[in-house]
Specification:
This protein is of the alpha+beta class. It is built from 3 helices and 4 strands; from the N terminus they run ββαβαβα. The radius of gyration is 14 Å and the shape is globular.
């Protein structure tokens, strides 16, 4: 199913990033996430469109497992800007790879 992988940050906890998915509008999902935050501290950093959002999220979460915050399914700790840029590249490349094979006419 087509959708969006998003990367959000909790500005009250710098470096705490949520890597999640939505099949709807990113703005609506961000609003839902901020309902649980009294300070509306969750902001969107990046979005990536993909042809198979569920598979993409699963693979990205597996890749990012070493950075997962303990007992948090979708929250990861990425402490500085250079690591965030590397994360964006990893997510982009992963989605590009998965989408290429999802749409492979030789399958």
């Amino acid at each position: 199913e087509r959708g969006i992988i998003y990367i959000n940050e909790d500005t009250d906890k710098p470096g705490h990033l949520k890597i999640g998915l939505t099949t709807g509008k990113c703005e609506k999902r961000l609003s839902q996430l901020n309902c649980g935050s009294s300070t509306n501290s969750i902001v969107n950093l990046k979005i990536f469109e993909t042809d198979d959002v569920f598979r993409a999220e699963t693979v990205i979460h597996r890749i990012m497992k070493p950075y997962r915050i303990v007992n948090q399914k979708e929250w990861f700790y990425i402490p500085d800007a250079s690591l965030k840029e590397r994360l964006y590249t990893v997510v982009s490349n992963t989605i590009e790879f998965l989408d290429l094979f999802e749409n492979d006419p030789l399958k």
